């Protein structure tokens, strides 16, 4: 891990304060900056920077975490890399695929680590599920779906698709290690014209594998659920304040008319209790030290944005099926 106290945090909104807590626990934080004085007051006085320039000119700052509103990600991440810093950017990487591509190109040209905060991929249960899928424990993939539902927080700068769906798109791409050739997305605007509050996105992967992602910030109860169906086993992950639960169902009906599997065959899969955000930040700092490409590096973030952009096009076409142009890394 890099030397202690060489990370700067930009942004102290609700999620930025989570970064503040964990980075302080890790002893990795050197400075914090937010243009809003009230937000900055959440940081210990000794860590508060008076300006962005103070942070970026500090030669002892080796890496920067960008946890500001998404519309600022491109400018801040660009400035940090131009100043010679490695960067972790909260999701979505940007609100525009062109800006994301620029960040990826800039990171490669300057030899900087660029990572995106797709935190769900660092959840110990998802890490375990990824290993189960990769080992063939579930058999050949059939379909998968994700529900990410809650009441608020409603955002003005991004709709529900861009706010919630990046998590599950990232997981789908990682679990399947495949590219969705096409998709269709349907949604509803209920609180503000032109901004989707509910969307359902259907994705078509190679070999007949299907997936759908249902996201909403107009839902009476919070629900984060992922279901993965193989031709040998099924798995469900339900997130929650207690760390979540990963369940493996031993067996699926082998043919039409066969009896469904006995619910008693569903077993809990033991997973580590590590906090996902800490796992994410530790991975980032490991990559800063080793210069290795992060699991959720810039190219991964760009892939997620390509799928999001395609879903946005489908929404504008009232749910029309659209082809998702393949990135070079997935060709």
Question: What does this molecule look like?
Answer:
With 331 residues, this protein is of the alpha/beta class. The chain folds into two domains: 7-119 and 277-297, 3-Layer(aba) Sandwich (Rossmann fold), CATH 3.40.50; 121-274 and 307-330, 2-Layer Sandwich (Dihydrodipicolinate Reductase, domain 2). The protein has nine helices and 14 strands. The protein has a nine-stranded mixed beta sheet with strand order 13-12-11-10-6-9-8-7-14. The chain has a five-stranded parallel beta sheet with strand order 2-1-3-4-5, with helices on both faces. Strand 11 (234-238) and strand 12 form a beta hairpin.
Poorly predicted spans? none
Mean pLDDT: 93
Straight-line N-to-C gap: 34 Å
Q: What is the CA-based Rg, rounded?
A: 20 Å
What is the topology?
Blueprint: E1 7-10, H1 14-26, E2 29-33, H2 37-40, H3 52-57, E3 63-66, H4 73-82, E4 86-90, H5 97-110, E5 114-117, H6 124-135, E6 141-151, H7 160-176, E7 182-188, E8 198-204, E9 210-216, E10 218-230, E11 234-238, E12 245-249, E13 266-268, H8 276-290, H9 298-316, E14 322-323
Parallel strand pairs: 1-2, 1-3, 3-4, 4-5, 6-9
Antiparallel strand pairs: 6-10, 7-8, 7-14, 8-9, 10-11, 11-12, 12-13
Tags for this model:
331 residues, Rossmann fold, 9-stranded mixed sheet, 33% helix, alpha/beta, Dihydrodipicolinate Reductase, domain 2
């Amino acid at each position: 891990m890099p030397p202690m106290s060489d990370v700067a945090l930009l942004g102290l909104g609700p999620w930025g304060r989570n970064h503040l807590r964990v980075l302080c626990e890790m002893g990795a934080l050197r400075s914090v900056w937010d243009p809003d004085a009230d937000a900055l007051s959440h940081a210990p006085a000794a860590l508060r920077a008076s300006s962005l320039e103070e942070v970026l000119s500090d030669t002892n700052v080796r890496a920067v975490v960008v946890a500001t509103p998404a519309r600022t990600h491109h400018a801040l991440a660009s400035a940090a890399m131009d100043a010679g810093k490695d960067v972790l950017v909260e999701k979505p990487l940007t609100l525009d695929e062109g800006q994301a591509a620029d960040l990826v190109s800039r990171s490669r040209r300057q030899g900087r680590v660029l990572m995106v905060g797709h935190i769900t991929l660092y959840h110990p249960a998802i890490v375990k599920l990824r290993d189960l899928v990769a080992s063939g424990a579930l058999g050949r993939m059939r379909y998968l779906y994700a529900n990410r539902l809650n009441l608020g927080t409603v955002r003005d700068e991004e709709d529900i698709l861009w706010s919630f769906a990046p998590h599950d798109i990232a997981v789908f791409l990682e679990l399947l290690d495949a590219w969705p050739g096409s998709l269709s997305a349907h949604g509803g605007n209920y609180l503000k014209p032109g901004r989707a509050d509910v969307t359902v996105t259907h994705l078509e992967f190679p070999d007949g594998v299907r997936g759908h992602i249902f996201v909403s910030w107009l839902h009476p109860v919070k629900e984060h659920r992922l279901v993965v169906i193989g031709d040998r086993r099924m798995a469900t992950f339900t997130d929650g304040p207690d760390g979540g639960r990963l369940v493996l169902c031993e067996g699926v009906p082998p043919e039409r008319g066969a009896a469904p599997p006995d619910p008693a065959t569903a077993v809990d899969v033991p997973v580590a209790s590590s906090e996902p955000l800490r796992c994410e930040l530790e991975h980032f700092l490991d990559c800063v030290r080793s210069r290795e490409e992060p699991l959720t590096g810039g190219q991964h973030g760009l892939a997620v944005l390509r799928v999001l952009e395609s879903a946005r096009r489908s929404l504008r076409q009232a749910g029309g099926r659209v082809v998702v142009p393949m990135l070079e890394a997935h060709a």
